[in-house]
């Protein structure tokens, strides 16, 4: 089989489900099993593959709602499970409030994500908050169960035993990744580790500097145990993934802790740029197709979240493909069984491709027939261009593996080298790199896109911000980028429905962070709400 569960194999996944590692979410931030024996029961560890199965659960947590078929066996209670996968929630928070995307659906408080009118009772914000700490709790339990003392008393497959330092480092990376997402989205958050109690307690919020330093120290500490560039299984992290996350942490340091860490970002990024990852020598559209794990795109993917139309039948790219298909589009053109008529591009994204002279940019993947460019009513799915970037078609024209077309095979590149190229260009424009090298990197991406080349004089911060949108739109970077460039709040840059105004209106700085959800505060009365909510 292919996709994320190559990590285990189908049989091991089924064992994982049968043995019911699945943890249902409580409102405790250190989310624990309803039955305290679920993770600690020795019966589970009688299987020599148990640790490999557990590690797969950590990776699957970024993709699926739970362990069951489709969206069944969900980890989080209290919200429709098809809304609850990590990557789908991440998209909701990182993309819908920006100039790149809107969604027509009127479910619950979802419309407020388009217009910056959310409040602390927003269930979609709660899902993301809960997902980050659920992932952290999984990683913590893996680390508790994989100490030398525990391993020494169990029947562990010899190959897994020899690889355990990497397993543990990967768990720490995934924990750092979710804590990074939590800090980016919510600011001051608790730090919960394997050394904290198992069960009900009140984790204390930490200042952003402490969270920042914890993530930094973890990413540096695990470097020795992570595998070298591209020597791990596809879909599992290596040293370069950790360097990429460290570079992103430093790149956004002014936002997080009010300190300029651009020099440190450039240092962290250097091994990424000099690694064995390569810009994929394939058409841009191949990066977002059902066979992007084998069609050449995978050479660029530093850390993909993996999907399989038969085995990971829910989650992020399944949503991105289906929800992007509008009534004026043919679902069969995308290798799926139907469209969900929700996601569209805002006009500002479309117009970014008209702002740069040169050849026709093939990154501009829009469906215009039957659609208006302007959006007078977000709820009207005929307003706003369709986006054809994500598909369940393979590069040879065939469909993904699911016979019905209900689920997709397309992997999601959470980190890819094209992003690293543009990070370098930004750092060079900020005085921490060579503009000559930056032009080379930017033009490598633009040449692949048939977009024409640019010169050093073009590499202003405004150009780089727009170029990041052209290259990375709908890949969950935009909110963070707009905040870092000082364009998300205030009125220096407006887009349709910013501030709940058809032509855009300034918004308050407090909206750079989302509120601590009411349900989380009710469960942990020590949590302090973010300013402005």
Automatic annotation (TrEMBL):
Task: Provide the RagB/SusD domain boundaries.
Answer: 381-533
Is Membrane among this UniProt entry's keywords? Answer: yes
Location(s), subcellular: Cell outer membrane
User: Could you name the Gene Ontology cellular component terms for this entry?
Assistant: cell outer membrane
Keywords recorded for this protein, A-Z: Cell outer membrane, Membrane, Signal
Q: Which InterPro entries does this chain map to?
A: SusD_RagB_dom, TPR-like_helical_dom_sf
Q: Which family does it belong to?
A: Belongs to the SusD family.
User: This protein is called what?
Assistant: Putative outer membrane starch-binding protein
Native organism:
Flavobacterium endophyticum
